[in-house]
């Protein structure tokens, strides 16, 4: 932006200088020309009284003195054909002036001033004064250099002033950009200075207001999450008491474990909301092999109850990934939950975990009907997108978990036409 403003001002200043300096240079040339011609004419006219009244010897002395003291050579052509002063030919212009007409003619290397005057013999004499090109251009080149120097100085000053003004505009813009990046990085205390000029002050004020509003919304979110946890504790406690009061000990233990898992899930949600609201989130990692194996053991019970064939191939651990164990557990639960929710009972599935191309790759494939809308680009990977009446958040949980680790999620079809979800998790830096 600074460079563009400087170039714009330089171009505009150059046009203005050209529009003024070229006519001024021509005017200087014209003034010098007229000054030299007028001086030569004055010197020639100074001899008219001598030519009209003095005798030849006096006239000759006057012409010699004029040539000695003046800057321009003077020649007097008398009516009887004689010539006094500087050597010169009787040109057609001289003969024209001898008829009583004074004039100025171009000689090729200067200008000749011809003054017609009557001499003492009663004839018509001509006084000729020659102005050379050097005299016509006396002081012109120096004036042109001064004008060029002045124009260059004005151009440099204009660019410097424009650059200073552009800097005063660019600096607040860069500061606003830096503050916006700090806010995007979670530094919610970042604020822009409102001492910026003009509209930048309004933008800085609006950005600060936006930052304050974001902070307020996040605070409200934390309050809502905390309030939700308190609201859930009472029904969870009632559900636990009901489970413990069951006569079947095995059934009571199983339901109690489910209640505990639900309570841990609520706790993880609260912790995740707190981490998202913090200014400096701490990167987390876990052993993917251990977490996936633990979740498969949990889902194997339900798979057995629904007569589903569960096939698994887990790489030997530890297999570190740049995501927390709770986030990875939620990801695995979301993927397997989709299999149980969107396929009929008895439909098998396969889970594989292995290292591939610098990532830890989790592949979940089922033997169901597969995804709808993949070919048209309207698949269920977007948040809230679902073609089966669900919330559409399951795959988004996997996408966010993979994205936070630097990985990605890919949807496709398995070998038997079922749904295939490939989740790549980034590995932590050593």
Automatic annotation (TrEMBL):
Question: Gene3D superfamilies recorded for this chain?
Answer: 1.10.287.130, Histidine kinase-like ATPase, C-terminal domain
Record's subcellular location: Cell membrane
Question: What SMART domains does this protein's entry cite?
Answer: HAMP, HATPase_c, HisKA
Q: Name one Pfam family in it.
A: HAMP
Q: Which residues cross the membrane?
A: 143-162
GO CC terms of this entry:
plasma membrane
Task: Please state every residue range assigned to the domain named Histidine kinase.
Answer: 227-429
Its catalytic activity? ATP + protein L-histidine = ADP + protein N-phospho-L-histidine
| Classification via InterPro entries | 2C_sensor_his_kinase, HAMP_dom, HATPase_C_sf, HATPase_dom, His_kinase_dom, HisK_dim/P_dom, HisK_dim/P_sf
Name recorded for this polypeptide: histidine kinase
Please report the stretch or stretches of sequence annotated as the HAMP domain.
167-219
The UniProt keyword set, sorted, is: ATP-binding, Cell membrane, Kinase, Membrane, Nucleotide-binding, Phosphoprotein, Transferase, Transmembrane, Transmembrane helix, Two-component regulatory system
Q: Does the keyword Cytoplasm apply?
A: no
- The record lists the organism as Actinopolyspora saharensis
EC no. given is 2.7.13.3
Tree of life domain: Bacteria
Q: Which GO terms describe its molecular function?
A: ATP binding; phosphorelay sensor kinase activity
Topology relative to the membrane: Multi-pass membrane protein
Q: What class of enzyme is it?
A: transferase
